[in-house]
Specification:
This protein is about 40% helix and about 20% strand. It contains five helices and seven strands. The strands form two sheets. Strands 3-2-1-6-7 form a five-stranded mixed sheet. The protein has a two-stranded antiparallel sheet with strand order 4-5. A hairpin with a 5-residue loop joins β1 and β2. It is globular, with a radius of gyration of 15 Å. It starts with a strand and ends in an 11-residue tail after the last helix.
């Protein structure tokens, strides 16, 4: 199987975007970026679609996996509104990137529970950090802090894709 470039994103202000060349055998050329953030008109931070777009232009992924997040019950409405705007900015940057390359829909949206369960994960971020360090040992220094959980989860989305989606041959369709 020929390797291709994939992106995986954990949305949100503390999220991250990971990239790797993937084949059925594993990964190479792996990088992870913290979510680019900019200030909105009211001065509050949001994921920055321009910064995301610049990263996508540099990394040139062929496919993306994005965690499909929904409302968080314990958050306030203003916080949820900003979170939804950030998710939309991330998703739009990916869709526009692939459209500009003539790639059509090339983004998988995957529910947190749907990708975490097959990897033996829960909502416990420490578990995600531990598995990411084991799966990507060369990136362990970038996963040293508890607040690196966005990096860990974006990397683990790559692993989920390699284990679960790639063998099915579902490349190129957007799913939820």
């Amino acid at each position: 199987m020929t390797a291709f470039r994939i992106a995986a994103a954990d949305p949100g202000l503390t999220g991250a975007i990971a990239f790797a060349d993937v084949s059925g055998d594993g990964f190479s050329n792996v990088f992870v970026y913290d979510m680019p953030v900019s200030a909105l008109i009211d001065g509050r931070p949001l994921p920055d679609e321009i910064g995301i777009s610049e990263i996508l232009t540099a990394e040139r992924p062929d496919m993306a996996v994005v965690e499909h997040v929904g409302p968080r019950p314990k958050s306030g409405s203003a916080s949820e509104w900003r979170f939804a705007m950030g998710f939309s900015a991330l998703r739009s940057a990916f869709r526009l990137h692939f459209a500009a390359r003539g790639a059509g829909p090339a983004t998988f949206l995957i529910d947190p529970k749907a990708w975490k369960t097959p990897l033996g994960l829960t909502s416990d971020k420490a578990l995600s950090l531990d598995l990411a360090r084991k799966t990507f040992p060369s990136l362990a220094p970038a996963l040293a802090r508890a607040k690196d959980d966005g990096r860990a989860e974006s990397l683990l989305l790559l692993e989920y894709y390699r284990r679960e989606i790639l063998p099915r041959g579902d490349a190129g369709i957007e799913v939820c």
